[in-house]
Amino acid sequence: MKKILLATTALAFSAGFAAAEVSFSGQAKMGLNYDGAAEKETSVHSEAVLYVAMSGETDTGLAFGATIDMIVEDNGDLNNDDTTVFVSGAFGKLSMGAVPEADENGGIADIGWDDLDTDDVAENLSGDELDDYLSYSFIGGFNETLSMNVSLDHNVNYTYAADAFSVAVSAKIGDEEVDSYAVGGRYNFGDAYVGLGYAKHEIDVSRSISVVGTPTGITFEGSADAEVVTAVAGGTFGAFGIAAIYSDGSIDIDAGGTTGSYDVDAFGVRGSYTMDALTLVAAYSEADMDGMPTLGGGTAGDQKRYGIGAAYDLGGGAQLAGGVARTKTGDADSETIGDFGITMSF
Amino acid sequence: MKKILLATTALAFSAGFAAAEVSFSGQAKMGLNYDGAAEKETSVHSEAVLYVAMSGETDTGLAFGATIDMIVEDNGDLNNDDTTVFVSGAFGKLSMGAVPEADENGGIADIGWDDLDTDDVAENLSGDELDDYLSYSFIGGFNETLSMNVSLDHNVNYTYAADAFSVAVSAKIGDEEVDSYAVGGRYNFGDAYVGLGYAKHEIDVSRSISVVGTPTGITFEGSADAEVVTAVAGGTFGAFGIAAIYSDGSIDIDAGGTTGSYDVDAFGVRGSYTMDALTLVAAYSEADMDGMPTLGGGTAGDQKRYGIGAAYDLGGGAQLAGGVARTKTGDADSETIGDFGITMSF
Amino acid sequence: MKKILLATTALAFSAGFAAAEVSFSGQAKMGLNYDGAAEKETSVHSEAVLYVAMSGETDTGLAFGATIDMIVEDNGDLNNDDTTVFVSGAFGKLSMGAVPEADENGGIADIGWDDLDTDDVAENLSGDELDDYLSYSFIGGFNETLSMNVSLDHNVNYTYAADAFSVAVSAKIGDEEVDSYAVGGRYNFGDAYVGLGYAKHEIDVSRSISVVGTPTGITFEGSADAEVVTAVAGGTFGAFGIAAIYSDGSIDIDAGGTTGSYDVDAFGVRGSYTMDALTLVAAYSEADMDGMPTLGGGTAGDQKRYGIGAAYDLGGGAQLAGGVARTKTGDADSETIGDFGITMSF
Q1: Is residue B163 domain-shared with residue B280, that is, in the same domain?
Q2: Contact B213 C139 (CB under 8 A)
Q3: More exposed terminus of chain C, fewer Cβ within 10 Å: N or C?
Q4: pLDDT, tens only, B282-291
Q5: Chain B hits for A48, Cβ within 8 Å
């Protein structure tokens, strides 16, 4: 009784489509991760994603739709990866849900197979990533910790593109503790691009511990202001590709009675070279966190991560990939991480 | 490698279908909610739903199937919205899972775009809604609260329809704390209908707090009996539509040493007028909760909610909709709520 | 706007398929469970499963794919049931995720409709089932319990099949507390088979209780070694089918200061007879747990479970099924359990 979804790319069929449709695609991975600092250095990883795309068009030609990405990692829970709803037309595109922050005009892709994260260090300050560092904590009581942890995820994005130029604005709307917005612009010339983005975050948290609904008197007041400017550039030149990102941020924190101002920056560059089915990549990233406080009371160390990777296209949607990277945080020793596996597209 | 699901309504294909099949449809929303009483009055909301429908037919012509509604709201968790399994034939239809309670013979639809909830106030007592008010709480200890919160959700429904008349019976079977059943009948004449339903709920809760498996001696005994009669009527008369619901309930509670008897009622009416692509609606609802206790120790105030809304069909499955409502609970001030957004069907 | 997934088995279409595709099938159940030992002896059960299968082929003919089983039981949460990713070719099949443990070369199927679990008792020691008995607990403090509960689920399996013979090896890789692997072989002759498997588990747990990040000094050290040998045999002989499994294990536990060595074994046999649309089954299983400790401080009693069942094929993917079983654990009284319902395949 197995149902077969016609996996066709035959556009001839599309003439007969109803205005609204549901379509599916997928991705999966299986392979090995290596972490020189872990007790068990080698671990296996597998994941499968079902991409649901729903799309339609109004009588006046306005396009609308939604995407749901359903993911399972290592046979764990079935989770929403990203879900977005949008309307687009001559006026541009308005999206809600898992929208990109507008100061992200093109970061750098990761290297290797799964999770070497050279891109994450470079993008430490842009988009919604800064919330990892604005979670200044206060040890509470009654088995609870009070902290300033919030999410800077934006939930609305408006993008307008005209020829080679696009502009976007995004924001987090409706949150009682966070005001956050971003603007960005990007210009494509030939196979190259440059982009500039600005983000502003204001956090104001007032939290307390209650036991069975009764306040204990233990409270935490915290606030933070952050501004981040991010520039990106890159392009494809024959078999070579290059992408770079640089972010500069200034952050003021007043949380749990402690205040501080921090000038932080992060950058990364990634180069690739493609020969037939083989692609070689290298990346280098740094983040200078200027001694920012972190959840738990410590100090966020500066981060450095660099590595090389390779990918080989097996055809039919499958690709072998792997990489090795070195990573260093603060004064800790450098560690080696690596990965190798297969990635499948359906 | 994107797979395209043939979104066809061409019944010509159906002749070749295997007996059992899986099909998909979807819905999505994006827009704004306004709550005059909230700290941030305006918030955004987005959601996407994938409807999975599985159906088949036995050799003797018995139809069977299941539906799973998978929903993501505001890019949050991937959840089951409603999942139902059924068998139907000349004997009627037997359903399990997310079944309707049989005393719900047609409530009133909501107005506006997303969540003005004029229907919820009118349906305060019918179906499984009364469980919101049967959660009388007792402050416990060891960071835990003991209360009578239970669910009145039925898990079995049997419906038999003959011409214009249908009867249904539903129940919650197998729950150790709740006995609940309902019966209902509905008669359609032309484009109009009347319906009558009766529900009976018996709750008997005995709960205690344990610490690491050891009883603390803190216990809670609670019981409640409730009977609710619900009448509905409505119809479509040319461009006009009207729907009304009235429920009358009597409730006895003996929980945590406190007893009480309550006579409650709720009603609502909703009218609509359609001109081409535009539909205008208005609704008024009240619920008199007779000072019932609520979780946390307070008293359930009487509720009143009314508003107007409009919807405009954009074609292709998309619709613009919005509304404004006034809501009042107990002695609190009236508040204004509103919404505006787009709804998409795929 | 309902989308219809073409539920075709017409292989004529497959010639036009792209190399990678996403396909769907499903299953659902609704019916009654009976448990003579429960307060409410009769309960209803419903479930619906969407099977997502993604598959592709590389240019050199290597097959790859992933499966995600999405399940909802009794209108509860939407869960991952099993998710597996694989690559297969002339070298064999490599799988990650929800893989079979290699010492499972064919257990015995359950009887009845849903959950009489005569198979579970017989398979008490094989695969990952032994983890239920290696969860020796220690009462902690601060509302927390420390125990040795771990999962023996393997996450990698490699299987090689040549004609009638297949061999497999599987392991749990990357877990800091568990080392576990298994090997197995199976030989098919005609419609019969024999199989032999071996599993080795090493558990080493060191856990402690912290309050708001501060260690309390309450710790738990536990370790266990287990070896299990499992033999299976069975076959289909005309209208008759038979399957048997026998496992023998030796377990050493040193947990929370208490040590013990246990010789355990379990076996089960299941026979079936098919007449047209009707299948009759009977099964008998026993597990001798040699007084092993269990979570909570008690002793695992020996288990015995046997019963009969019947299934009737309604055609079109639907089947009526039911069964009755007797179950006995340790010195407790024997209890009667039963089930009856419909199973649907889509």
Answers
A1: yes
A2: yes
A3: N
A4: 999 999 998 8
A5: none
